[in-house]
Structure formats: C-alpha cells, structure tokens
Amino acid sequence: MKIFLLLSTLVITLWADAHIFVYHRFGDSRHPSTNTTKKELIKEFEYFKNNNFKVIRLEKLVNALKHKKNIPNNWVVLTIDDSFKSFYDNALEIFKKYHYPFSLFVYVEASSKKYPDYLSFRQLKEISKYGSLEFHSYSHPHLTKLSDAKVREDFIKGLKIFEKRLQIKPKYYSYPYGEYTNRIKKIAKSFNFDAIINQNMGAVGRNSDIFDLDRDALVGKTDLKYLLKFKHLDATWVAPTSFPKNGILKNIHIKTDEKAKKALLYVSKNGWKKVEVKNGELNIKLNIKLAAGRNRIIISIKDKITSKLLIKDNQWN
Ligand SMILES: [Zn+2]
Predict the structure, then answer these.
(1) What's the rounded Cα separation, in Å, for the pair 247 and 287?
(2) Nearest Cα to 211, choosing from 188, 231, 232?
(3) Which of the four pLDDT bands, split at 50, 70 and 90, describes residue 131?
C-alpha cells in the first residue's frame, strides 16, 4: 500500500500546474486550423480520464487563485471560444457523456444577428445547463486597432445584449483573437470580470495573474501531452513590457527565482534558441524587427514557461 501511495505521488508530481485549454470548432472540416474532430476530442477526453486529470470548472480554478491556494497539478479547465454552432452539433453530447464542465465564450453579435454558423440564443440557453456562458466581445474586433471609446462601446453593447437575452451576467472575458495590450487589458479590467483569459501558451500556477490567465489552443494537430507537461514560470518581465515604438525588439530581460543556468527562448518567426540565465536573470540583447501583427515571446526554463504577446497598439501604449 505504501509503495502504491508513493508511486501515485511520484506520478502526480510529474504533472504540471493547471492548464486551461481553448477549443473553437468541432467536426468542421471546412476550417482545419481551428477545428477539433470528434475523434480527437474523444481521444483527449480519454487521455484526461485515464491519466487522472480532473476537468474542473473555471470558477474553481479562479477561486483557488483568489485565495492563493496551491493549484493541484492535475486540474484541467476546458473553454470554447466564438460560440460556433458546431459545438452544439458535434461536441456537447461528448462533454455531457464525460460529465466535463466547460466555459463557452460568446461572440454576441453573431447570435444577435443570427449569423448562420453560430449558436442561437435559444441554443446558448440550453447549453448553459451544462456549462457556463462567458463574454467574448460584441463584434469580435481586433481590439488593439480601436480607440479607447470604441473598445468600451464594444463591451457595453455586448454585455447589455448578453445579459438581456441570456439572463446571465458573465464572470469571465476572453479577448477576440487572443489579442490585447496593456491598454486593452486595463479597459477590460474596468468591466469587473472575475478573471480574464488570454491565448498565450502556458500553465496556471498559484502566482498567475487572474486577469491574464494563459490558455493553450487545442486544435486538430496540437500535442496535448506536450502542452500538459509545462508548469507556470513565475517571472517579472523587465523588458519588453509592450510592443517597441520603432518595432525593433532590442532586448529581453526577465527575473525569476530559478537556479537553472540555461533557458530556451522563442520569438515569433525566429524559432527557438538556447540562452543563458545568471542568478535567475535572463538578459539577452537582440535586434529583431517585429511584425505588425501578433508577436510571441516564450521563455522556458526546464519545464516551466512564461510568455508575452506583443502587438502594435493603435494608441502606442
Ligand atoms: Zn474568437
């Protein structure tokens, strides 16, 4: 018995902090880059089930973070963005079969204007019996391209219709396209959500920012086991803190408590490279011209990762 317990503990410690995953479309072969086939979904759910992962409600994870509790290594949170009809047609039954809770982030305009590929408010209401409905903007805009006033307008309009049609007050927000900057985050926070979810690769540890929770996309070809092995790296980003004004990424500087001397650094379009860490500090001089769209920086020290999304902001913030 003792040996069994010891082995169980060992297995559990190999798993990393909690993971939030995001799905988009299900069983919809027209859009392979955002699709998860029914077969893949069942395979993932079987993996969770057979490897002692516990699929929990987002609320449970957020509450644990709020109270600074340790985050069990086997927690998994499942979210769905965009409220495509294919969730209702091809995935809801599977979620129900496994009794897996989920949070579905609603693109309000699509339901409001009855866009053909999207869930109706009636279907959303039915779905809310099995999972929570959350907010994913009114018009699904590229927020960083909008003025403060236009960003606020999208929230106000979307939340009003959401609450009126669904009779639910959403607790969480996820950014359209996972795109945000410090300016957008500040506006989103002013709408008093309990948590905000991004779409940056990573895991959730006890020191994760409740208003910047990392979330991994799970689409067709993604390697679930690879994503599950990562833990959250507690890091202070000294530089960069936002998209550089001249578009040139000059250096990357983070501070951690890690003892390791080596790290792996990823910058969009530049791939991975080995870099040195000295006394928990990674300070690398670079001279990289960033793209105008989404740029990702990912730093991995052993099995822990931290990442940063850099997008050119309309307001230079
Ligand atoms: Zn979306």
Answers:
(1) 10
(2) 188
(3) very high
C-alpha 42 to ligand 1 mean position (Å):
23
> What Cα–Cα distance (Å) separates residue 266 from each residue in 150, 256, 301?
33, 17, 12
Cα(197) to ligand 1 centroid in Å equals 12
Rg (the chain; Cα; Å): 20
Q: Please list, in sequence order, all residues whose beta carbon lies within 8 angstroms of the beta carbon of residue 266, skipping any fewer than 6 positions away.
A: 272, 273, 296, 297, 298, 299, 300
Distance 290 CA to ligand 1 centre (A): 23
Is pLDDT at 49 greater than 50 in this prediction? yes
pTM: 0.92
Distance 275 CA to ligand 1 centre (A): 34
Measured in Å, residue 79 CA sits from the centre of ligand 1 at 11
Looking at domain 2-231, which of 3.30.450.40, 3.40.50.10540, 3.40.30.10, 3.20.20.370 is its CATH number?
Answer: 3.20.20.370
Topology of domain 235-310 in CATH is Immunoglobulin-like (2.60.40)
User: In terms of DSSP bridges, do strands 304-310 and 231-232 run parallel, antiparallel, or are they unpaired?
Assistant: parallel
